[in-house]
Write a structure and sequence with these properties.
- The chain is α/β, with parallel strands linked by helices.
- It has one domain: 3-Layer(aba) Sandwich (Rossmann fold), CATH 3.40.50.300.
- Helices cover 38% and strands 22% of the residues.
- It is built from eleven helices and ten strands.
- Strand 7, helix 7 (180-197) and strand 8 form a beta-alpha-beta unit.
- The longest helix has 18 residues, at 180-197.
- It is globular.
- The structure holds adenosine-5'-triphosphate and magnesium ion (MG).
- Adenosine-5'-triphosphate binds next to helix 1.
Length: 284
């Protein structure tokens, strides 16, 4: 018998989503609509209080919309029967690694999530090992979690989510509390998961540099999406970005100033690309 398979290319879809924390309070999100395709790496940028964490918590049914709908693989998060499947499909990693570590030994911590999903003991070992290898923490599997660096803890937290085999990971400012080394470790890990393991990523940050290598960047301000495009398209909006309190990367600022003065270097996102394009312009 042929089973009917519906392919839902949109892994995550927000449809006119409004969210209020209190019944008569202000709207934290105001009619937000967007979707994320399978395999995409999307960055959400926004100033403090713009609504980023609210989006993260709505994306796997930790919160349910006040108005509108959120769909995970076509499943409405408001249907109670979808709750478990939604949480298995979209895993959320939060800002503070210390709040996410629950066990004293690394491998026990990573096993916690899948154990809660009632994964069989025989499969558990393989899942934990695979997840730890994925984030480069396998050698640390017997280490004590409280002795790890911030970046290592955050990678263990990501492994804990991976062990539940999600199709999409939402990371809510996972690098905000880390030093530059920890930030690089986490960023490289997430990029690799997206490229090599085809995991869909929604990466929330207020560091503009982290947006440069995304497929797509959305900017949130005051509960609304005000920009949605490639990093090059978004970084061109220097004045708007500054107006909503985001630090525009120096290269983007310089490129915009030169463009204003009749010297268009094209789409520039990194210092290397800037130098290269500038020299070419001077020689040409
Ligand atoms: N538990 C809560 N109760 C009431 N209001 C809240 C609650 N959490 C957030 N808010 C409000 O909702 C709005 C959006 O908050 P949210 O946490 O989504 O922003 P954010 O972009 O994640 O901010 P940050 O950069 O500080 O993490 C803010 O105005 C905030 O004050
Ligand atoms: Mg937040």
């Amino acid at each position: 018998m042929l089973e009917e398979i519906t392919v839902e290319e949109k892994l995550l879809r927000f449809e006119n989503v409004t969210y209020r924390y209190e019944e008569d309070g202000e709207e934290a999100l105001k009619g937000v609509s967007f979707s994320v395709q399978k395999g995409e790496f999307v960055v959400i940028l926004g100033h403090n209080g713009s609504g980023k964490s609210t989006i993260a918590k709505l994306s796997n049914s930790i919160y349910l919309p006040t108005e509108g709908n959120v769909y995970v693989n076509g499943m409405n998060t408001q249907d109670e029967e979808n709750e478990m499947q939604c949480r298995k499909t979209v895993g959320v990693v939060f800002q503070n690694p210390d709040n996410q570590i629950v066990a004293s030994i690394v491998e026990e911590d990573v096993a916690f999530g899948p154990e809660n999903l009632c994964v069989e003991q025989s499969q558990l070992r393989a899942r934990v090992d695979e997840a730890l290898k994925s984030v480069g923490m396998y050698e640390y599997r017997m280490h004590e979690t409280h002795k790890l660096s911030g970046g290592q803890k955050q990678r263990v937290a990501i492994a804990g989510i991976l062990a539940m085999r999600p199709q999409c990971i939402v990371l809510d400012e996972p690098t905000a509390m880390l030093d530059p080394k920890g930030r690089r470790e986490v960023m490289n890990t997430v990029r690799r998961l997206n490229k090599d393991e085809n995991i869909t990523v929604l990466f929330i940050t207020h560091f503009m540099e982290e947006a440069a290598t995304a497929d797509r960047v959305m900017v949130v301000d005051d509960g609304k999406i005000i920009l949605d495009g490639t990093p090059a398209e978004v970084f061109k909006e220097v004045e708007l970005l500054q107006k909503v309190g985001l630090d525009v990367p120096e290269v983007a600022r310089l490129t915009a100033m030169l463009r204003k003065n009749g010297c268009d270097l094209g789409d520039i996102l990194t210092e290397d690309a800037f130098v290269e394009a500038f020299i070419r312009k001077m020689e040409g």
